[in-house]
Every structure is written in C-alpha cells, then in structure tokens.
Write a structure and sequence with these properties.
The structure is a single chain. This protein is an alpha/beta fold. The protein folds into 2 domains: 205 residues, no CATH class; 179 residues, 3-Layer(aba) Sandwich (Rossmann fold). The chain is built from 11 helices and 17 strands. Strands 3, 6, 7, 8, 9, 10, 11 and 14 form an 8-stranded mixed β-sheet that branches. Strands 12-13-2-1-17-15-16 form a 7-stranded mixed β-sheet, covered by helices on one side. Helix 3 packs parallel to helix 4, helix 5 packs parallel to helix 6 and helix 8 crosses helix 9. The protein starts with a helix and ends with a helix. Bound molecules: beta-D-glucopyranose and calcium ion (CA). Calcium ion (CA) binds next to strand 3.
Length: 411
C-alpha cells in the first residue's frame, strides 16, 4: 500500500515537473504576472474593453499609449504643416488640397483613432451616433463619399477645399494588417490614375508611410505623414517626410517589462514607475498615465517634425530616466515568454523589440521572444506549448478580440 502511494506521489510529481509547474498544479500559470501590450484586449468593432482579459488575475495589466491624444496630435501636425506651407501645396492649382490616407487595421483602436484624428483636424470627418466614421472610402475624387465630407482650410488669403481623395485598409492578400508593401502598391495605383491631385499623403503608421514615401512621394515632393517615429522615418524628415508621432515606445517597452518585474518581486506596482526604485528609475506624469479602472498604462505621445527630429533619430535607445540597471542580487533572473504579433511589423520589430531587448538586461529578465505571422493567433499560441516553463507572460495579440486564445492556455 505504502509503495503504491509513493508511486502515485512520484507519478504526480513527474506529471507536475512535465507540466513545468514544479508540482504546484497547472493552474499556477493562471496566477503568474501577465501583461498585454500594443493591442488592448477589446471588441474590434465597438472598441469596448475586454475587462475579463484585463482582470485575468491580480497581476494583469495592459501597456500601450494614449491613442486619442496621439491621434489628435497627428491631425494637428498635418494642419500646421498645411498652414505653414500652404501656398505651394496645391500641385494642380484646382483649389483643392487632396490627400490620401493609408488605414492600418479597421478593427484596431489605434488605427481607428488616427483615422478619426486626421479627419477631424482636416474637417473631413462625418459624425454618426456620436463617433467619427473611420471607414475607408475607396476612391472619392468627386467628393461624394458618405464616410467623409469635404473640409476647408484658410491659408493666408485663400480658402482651399480639403478632400480625402482615397483611403484603404492596407491588408495583404494573406491577411496581414498595417501592411507596408500593400501601401506601396496602393500609392502606385492611386498616383497613376490621379497623381496630380494628390497634395498630401497621410498614413496610420510609418511602416506604410515610408513605403509610400519611397515608392512615390519623395520623388514627387509630396509631404507624407506617419506615426511611430521609427528611426528610418525620423531620418527621412531631412529628405521631405512631413512628420511623425512618437508614441514613446521607450516608455512603453520599459513599462511592459517593469510591471512584470514588480509583480514578480512582489513589490508595489508603482515601483520605478511613478515612485523611484532603489536605482533611481522613475517616470513623470508627462511620460505616461495609469487608468486603474482599465488596468492600463498609457504612454503619452509627442509630435516629431522638422523642428525637433534631431532629438529622435535613434528610436531604440532606452529612456534615460529609467535606464539604470537593477541589482541582480535583489532581483534574481526570471523567465518571461513574450510574443510580437507580426515579426514583419515595422514598428514592433524595428523599434519596440530592440527596446525590450535593452530593458530585459537592465531588469534581469530572461525573455524568450516569439515572432508571429501577423495573421493567425495559432501561429503564436502553438509556441506556448509549455507555459509552466515561464514566470511571466507578455502578449501582443493578432486581433484584439482574441485574449481567450491565450488565457485558456494559462488556465
Ligand atoms: C503601431 C503600428 C503597429 C500596430 C501593431 C500600433 O500601435 O503604431 O505601427 O503596426 O500598433 O499592433
Ligand atoms: Ca489640388
């Protein structure tokens, strides 16, 4: 009898070890720190937050940035540019300032906010049931589309009509969103049929913006605006790229790993964030805000234009106020599983991940980076076969509705 029991105990121990949970039962994973980042768990058609995912356990947070504040800034940046360069902008002299808009992902809150921010600032927004329509128009050369309307802008003595000539979700045939090569192709199609009418190019991000700039607008001297302040886009401001928005990826990448570090250390979650840690790392309220009811940290955005771009040339440098290493004695190395939804996403792969890789050393986190294909959740979740091997998780979903594809693996 005794022997049978100990055999059972041994078998249970082996099963526990195999599950990688040190014998504590598989639901241990459900209690580990979890951070969602860049894609906030939410309904992709209504934008409503998925509070179940955000409250998965008491160590769950979201890290992103203030999409509305950034989108407003992006719109203002474009308007300021038009006001200060207006006289030379109307390329065909028809009294219309025509722009085209590259939409990233019609179901992504950041993309929706940016489309709304640009349309609102340019006066082309149509409001329905209290919200600005963020749908793509296809082409709208005659100004009759219903998702937008013609705006107007006074520049010097003259009033110009502002028209969204075309907009499209930049989705590849395989399903990848925010797709730069799709945007490069779109500007090719648009410019060959109505290139003379395009006075401004606006994009929901720099990946798509730079593809359009390289394919057409640089050569044709048409100002192009993006978002993210990727290093290549910032450098292109010297060559005529109109401007971009920094979503303070240096602050976001820090917060992504810092909340995990704090939760793993069992210290106050504000440590090294709003409250200095023992190394002196601390952020200010100009850098971020925390909304407790949403369990969410939001970095604040900054406009990057010809006036200040020199300060933003290296997008992958850790932010000085939070770049001091933690002692490895007090903060022993922990293992983190982290995924990037699409290894080919310019912002996440060229800016965000290099920043994470700089901070993981400073915070003594041993992070395993998984790059997805941008199309299916299973391409990523298949590589979380053994969640028990990790102390914490950082997740960047393909679609904001899909949090449960991950949480079921941890439950
Ligand atoms: C970034 C985009 C990126 C997207 C991916 C956004 O916040 O601005 O560049 O493609 O996140 O989820
Ligand atoms: Ca014109």
């Amino acid at each position: 009898m005794k022997k049978t029991l100990s055999l059972i105990a041994a078998a249970a121990l082996v099963a526990g070890l195999l599950a990688g949970c040190g014998g504590g039962g598989s639901s241990d994973n459900a209690k580990k720190p979890l951070v969602w980042f860049n894609r906030q768990p939410s309904n992709s058609s209504t934008g409503e937050l998925d509070m179940n995912a955000l409250n998965f356990n008491d160590k769950t947070y979201y890290v992103g940035f203030d999409a509305n504040q950034g989108a407003e800034l992006q719109g203002q940046m474009v308007v300021e540019y038009l006001k200060s360069h207006g006289e030379n902008l109307d390329r065909n002299g028809d009294g219309i300032l025509g722009y085209v808009l590259a939409i990233g992902d019609i179901g992504h809150n950041d993309s929706i906010a940016r489309t709304r921010g640009v349309r609102t600032a340019l006066g082309t927004a149509v409001t329905e049931n209290g919200a600005v329509n963020s749908a793509a128009v296809g082409t709208n050369l005659d100004g009759k589309a219903t998702a937008v309307k013609d705006g107007s802008i006074q520049i010097g003595e003259k009033t110009y009509i502002v028209r969204e000539l075309a907009s499209q979700e930049m989705k590849s045939s395989a399903g990848a969103t925010w797709d730069a090569s799709t945007a490069g192709n779109a500007i090719g199609t648009w410019s060959s049929s109505f290139g003379e009418q395009i006075d401004v190019v606006v994009s929901n991000n720099d990946g798509m913006g730079m593809a359009m700039f390289n394919a057409w607008s640089q050569e044709n001297k048409v100002p192009t605006f993006g978002y993210d302040a990727n290093s290549d886009a910032v450098a292109a401001i010297a060559n005529g790229y109109g401007g971009t928005i920094s979503q303070h990826a240096d602050v976001q990448a820090y917060l992504t790993l810092r909340v995990l570090r704090n939760a793993l250390d069992g210290v106050d979650i504000d440590t090294g964030i709003g409250t200095p840690d023992e190394a002196g790392n601390v952020l200010s309220d100009k850098d971020f805000k925390y909304v407790a009811s949403e369990r969410s940290y939001y970095a604040l955005n900054l406009a990057v234009t010809a006036e200040n771009y020199q300060d933003f040339l290296d997008a992958t440098k850790p932010y000085a106020p939070v770049a001091k290493a933690l002692s490895s004695e007090k903060h022993e190395t922990k293992k983190v599983w982290l995924n990037i939804y699409n290894a080919a996403d310019n912002f996440l792969s060229a800016t965000y991940q290099p920043l994470l890789q700089a901070y993981d050393d400073l915070l003594n986190l041993d992070v395993e980076y998984i790059g997805g294909d941008g199309q299916t959740e299973s391409n990523i979740t298949n590589r979380l076969g053994n969640p028990g091997l990790y102390d914490a998780y950082a997740i960047n979903m393909v679609k904001t509705d899909n949090a449960s594809s991950y949480t079921t693996l941890l439950s």
